[in-house]
Design goal:
This protein is mainly α. The protein has 12 helices and 2 strands. The radius of gyration is 21 Å and the shape is globular.
Length: 257
């Protein structure tokens, strides 16, 4: 357990030298700040908006529409590749593999840090969106805080679905980033698969595309032909599959430099 803890601490330290933290910070704050500026610009309608019973779901849905369809998948592709390839950029794979750490701990630590950063991004985005909805009441005397109950359970479930939708992207990008020394290959492959998923939205077999599930979430797509279809179990399967393949390749790869 001490070795795993030490490995996790080392991976966290390495992320401080990468752009991953800036991507998480920018990605979590950008959309809420833009929406907040828009609310300040049209401040005369804020009292009516805050008095509406759907104020929370309205603005959270609006924020997630921009976030989930574009910034979130792109950000996950970049952050996963950045964290997974820290050693490639610093030419320190040999140094890492000479440390008294099992390969499994190294693999698990990197993946855990990536998932933790993703979760941190979700928390930051939700807090920033909460601020976007409530902050105008601090600056304008005629604006009151929303009186509608905060739909914590509904928003928690929605966040959990988006987090699940991102897992195949994390797992596949992690696999690609560990196999290729050229940073542009996993990034290019990730963006290409994302664009292919957007193009394949209306394809009858689009559900097999691993980068498509956040877009499915917004489109409300729940059928294959005329058959009702719950696609949420597919991201979990893809994640386990890609992670398993990545782990096996990592352990059996002769040249880990």
């Amino acid at each position: 357990m001490k070795l795993l803890t030490a490995s996790l601490q080392a991976e966290w330290m390495k992320t401080k030298r990468s752009a991953a933290w800036w991507l998480i910070l920018t990605g979590g704050l950008l959309i809420p700040i833009i929406l907040l500026i828009g609310r300040f610009y049209n401040h005369e309608i804020i009292p009516a908006e805050n008095a509406a019973p759907i104020v929370w779901t309205k603005f959270y849905s609006r924020a997630w529409t921009y976030m989930g369809n574009l910034l979130l998948p792109m950000g996950v592709i970049l952050v996963t590749s950045l964290v997974a390839q820290v050693e490639v950029r610093n030419n320190t794979w040999k140094q890492l593999h000479t440390a008294p750490l099992p390969y499994g701990f190294i693999f698990l630590s990197k993946l855990t840090v990536i998932l933790s950063l993703l979760l941190l991004g979700f928390v930051l985005f939700n807090l920033a969106t909460f601020g976007m909805i409530t902050l105008p009441a601090v600056f304008y005397q005629d604006v009151f805080f929303p009186t509608a109950p905060f739909p914590f359970k509904k928003l928690l479930i929605g966040n959990a679905k988006f987090l699940l939708d991102m897992l195949p992207i994390v797992a596949l990008q992690f696999l690609l980033s560990l196999q290729f020394r050229n940073f542009l290959i996993p990034i290019g492959a990730g963006f290409g698969l994302y664009v292919a998923s957007m193009i394949g939205m209306n394809w009858k077999y689009g559900f097999i595309l691993p980068y498509i599930y956040s877009s499915y979430e917004f489109s409300g797509k729940s059928t294959i032909g005329t058959t009702q279809f719950n696609f949420h179990w597919l991201p979990a399967i893809y994640c386990l599959l890609f992670t398993g393949i990545s782990y096996i390749i990592y352990l059996t790869k002769a040249d880990k430099t």
